Amino acid sequence: MRRSLLLLSAGLTMLSTGLASAQNNTPRNLILFIPDGLRALKVTPETAPAMAAVRDKGVNFRNSHSLFPTFTMANGSAMSTGHYLGDTGVFSNTIWTNYTSVPAGDTVVPFIENDAVLGDIDEHFGGNYLNEDTILKLARDKGYSTAALGKHGPTYQFDHTDKPEKPGLHSIVFDDATGGKNGVALSDEVKDALTKAGLPTTTPPRGDNSKAGDAKTPGTTSANVAQQAYFADVAAKVVLPMFKARNKPFVLVFWSRDPDGSQHNTGDSLNQIKPGINGPTSMAGIKNADDNLAQLRKALDELGLTASTNIMVQADHGFSTISKESKTSPSAKVGYDDTPKDFLPMGFLALDLAKALDLPLFDPNDKNAKVEGNKHPKAGNGVLGKDPTKPDLVVATNGGSDLVYLPNKDKKLAAKTIKALLDQDYVSGLFVEDSLGRFPGTLPLSSLSLRGKAATPTPSIVVNFRSYASDCGEAPTNCSVQIADTVLRQGQGMHGSFSRGDTMNFMAAIGPDFKAGYVSEIPVSNADVGMTAAHLMGLRGSQNGGLVGRVMSEALPNGVVPKAFKMVERSKKKSENGLETVLNVQRVGSQRYFDAAGFPGRTLGLEPDGGKQKTAGK
After folding, report:
1. What is the pLDDT of residues 382-411, one digit of tens each?
2. What angle do CA 89, 92, 93 make, to 5 degrees?
3. pLDDT of residue 165
4. pLDDT for 541 beyond 90
5. Measured at the alpha carbon of residue 71, what is the angle toward residues 70 and 77, in degrees to the nearest 5?
6. Cα radius of gyration (the chain)
7. CA nearest neighbour of 546 among 13, 138, 65
8. Of the candidates 202, 150, 125, 113, which has an alpha carbon nearest to the alpha carbon of residue 456?
9. Alpha helix (H) ranges present in 500-553?
10. Stated pTM of the model
11. Taking 80 as the threshold, does the pLDDT of residue 479 lie above it?
12. Phi/psi at 527 (nearest 5 deg)?
């Protein structure tokens, strides 16, 4: 509680500092541009000139951080609210909700990158599953024009409680579902503007970019060009001109699916670690996102809005190449029709835990069918126990990390589960819900700000998977490889781990309320993005939880440049087999930034030695 109050106090104090537009007479506009899955060190004037220009001419946040678990919806919740995941309850892209979600396919472990699923979860958690106000809602309530365009799920999350059928101002939302039965309705004003601009009212599909392939067929070799060109055209030719005509300040969120989608589905490296996500398809995805940003900046110039518009560019997470190799996993020794010999299958964590705990395994994505023989769960998720409707343990599969829930809070089962996980070579770090107690080799969820005022169920154990750097010839974070629990193949891309390759996201900003040509060495995170965006617009909402980010004062003209320190946290005791979870942290005041964590030698970016505090960047 004390730490929560300190964080809340720090956040509110920072809201009163700096010389940003909240104190200016001229209202400012804000564009949040999210290039999903963009690794910071892949941005150069050659690969991404528009983003490199924002970084080099504006503020370069060199010490950037995604929140762990490093997934899209989780970090989108931080950017949209300014809160850590312990408050937003969006612990990953797939979570256990403790009820059957019909829009998600009648499952208790819904994949939440979907508008209909988010609406369903809202209904089951008091009308707002985030339990915090989003910056688009706050801006809309204050009279700002608001819009969100881009990838299905995180785009809608920015103003998911807006109901178009109610009177008042509404956000303009365009995503994959626009024009379909589950899409957010467009107003007549927007439809007319689309017609005048020669644009359709339905979002085009991803086409070949959506093709992930399989164990024998390579995935895509195409970036998500057509779909994102539509979103960029809508923003540049419809939304921005409409907002200028209203003569009011605005906030526009543009969530670029690329390079994430192209890196996930890349067909350049079937079952091979190299080139992995450094092949031509991934690079085309980076260029595609960059072209979208360039189009938005050109539209601002042509409309005379550049001088009054702040632009914040931040990726939700970094990225890694997938490995499916393990020497200890029982499931890797079983033959599966869709899995190469000796590779980890989809759902290996659920399969291995079921065997170790001697519990029946059922598939929550297949009407709770029992998983036996050489079968694996369809989506990797699993419910374990004699009665699948009252499970003893639930596995929510996500990628570079998985969530384990113990519905009965059984401490003995927790101990057995942790022991089983410590035996696997693909595990690198375990984080356990505080109320279950402290276990050798683990750290508590509270150490990651994963324990707060969340409305959705809090995981019992978060399992981080092993990561390392390949010899790809680039910086280690660009060569990151991780074990991933996913239907995607070795050589394709994934994120979610506690590797520095996944926590190091691209972040930059430019505009009238940011310094020019400034390089910041101070650690920042996606929670800080939400708090800074609110500060720039003079917004302040009711806060149910106290796990908040800080205003990035060092990036603002005449703003305070705080000191940062490094520290290391370790398990209180090592496990019987000598393992300990180590967490590398940076600190600014009461704010904590997580570099990397896991078992020494199994996580990229984790330095096993140290522990003394020192100023970050020195």
Report:
1. 999 999 999 999 999 999 999 999 999 999
2. 115
3. 80
4. no
5. 105
6. 23
7. 13
8. 125
9. 500-503, 526-536
10. 0.95
11. yes
12. -65, -35
